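Design request, tokens follow.
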């Protein structure tokens, strides 16, 4: 089996797609089986500290599981938002997820609410962090049109 697996930055995957399809057919035969496994994995990642892996996996898994309310809550989290905005792929995914959960008008309302609830520190570092967040937010909405 080791010859049929590849390691991409610590993530194991099948070398040949036909092997992945055979395993999927054997262990996840129905759409509901797949949805439940996506949900199980999402639950796992939702309990972890926010890091790049969580930011990559959690929204994807929630989207695949059809958990639109949880997806919306996740991408409204300002820490997740900032991490997603750090890369072109993350920004693209963020925009795609907002389209799935209700569009950019909903994003605007949700982010304004999240910003208003975010405690504002008084240190120079807090002010720099807030300014960086607002720049990321502005970039997101410019790209969203």
């Amino acid at each position: 089996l080791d010859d049929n697996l590849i390691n991409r930055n610590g993530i194991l995957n099948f070398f040949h797609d036909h092997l992945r399809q055979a395993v999927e057919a054997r262990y996840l035969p129905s759409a509901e089986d797949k949805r439940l496994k996506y949900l199980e994995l999402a639950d796992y990642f939702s309990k972890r500290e926010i890091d790049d892996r969580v930011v990559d996996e959690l929204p994807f898994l929630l989207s695949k599981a059809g958990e639109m309310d949880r997806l919306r809550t996740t991408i409204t989290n300002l820490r997740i938002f900032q991490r997603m905005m750090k890369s072109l792929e993350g920004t693209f995914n963020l925009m795609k997820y907002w389209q799935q959960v209700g569009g950019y008008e909903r994003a605007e309302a949700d982010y304004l609410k999240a910003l208003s609830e975010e405690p504002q520190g008084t240190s120079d570092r807090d002010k720099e962090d807030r300014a960086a967040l607002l720049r990321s937010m502005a970039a997101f909405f410019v790209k969203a049109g």
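Comment from the thread starter after seeing the answer: thanks! The chain has a mean pLDDT of 94.
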